[in-house]
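Action item from last week, closing it out:
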Amino acid sequence: MASNFELSERSSPKQHRISPRAEKEEVDYMQRAQWLRAALLGANDGLVTVASLMMGVGSIKEDVKAMLLVGFAGLVAGACSMAIGEFVSVCTQRDIETAQMKRAIETETSLSAIDEQDEEEKKERLPNPGQAALASALAFSVGAAMPLLAAVFIENHKVRMAVVAIVATLALLVFGVTGAVLGKTSVFKSSVRVVIGGWMAMVLTFGLTKFIGSEAMQI
């Protein structure tokens, strides 16, 4: 019959603990996945915004310069807005986490070397506002550049509009599939949601701009 000491050793939770290295690898993987999903969302936002603007202007203007100009303005404005918004948001998150870490340290009567090492690792993993702002701006710009590049060399107005719509649809499909793979969700449902959402934005912008533009021309 095994002694109580032997039984306690067999059932010790230490055997089921995840090693610090494995835990760190898991956290790093989750952070990479979050960054990839954030990049996809930023690119999707840039694509839908600029494609919708170009479709809206194209509904009343056949000049390619007008479409490219409004698309470029949308790219710059959107990238700046994304960068500033992400910078402010991540700064706020970093301040909250830093304050929480300080409160946790103040409540401890003494810290071991392991605890101090953990605190240093936590500080290193705090979000970087500048990096987040740059990533958001780049992701938005990449998505926004797709409809611009699709339309820049096409002179025929109807063909240009069709190409912008097709390129936007294909890119939205790719974003939907990639997001579903990263999130381990249904590829079909994710793709349909993304494509339908993008098409709704483009159709509404096209229709409302054409209606308002036609009414304004009659005044």
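Closing note: The chain has one domain: 44-213.
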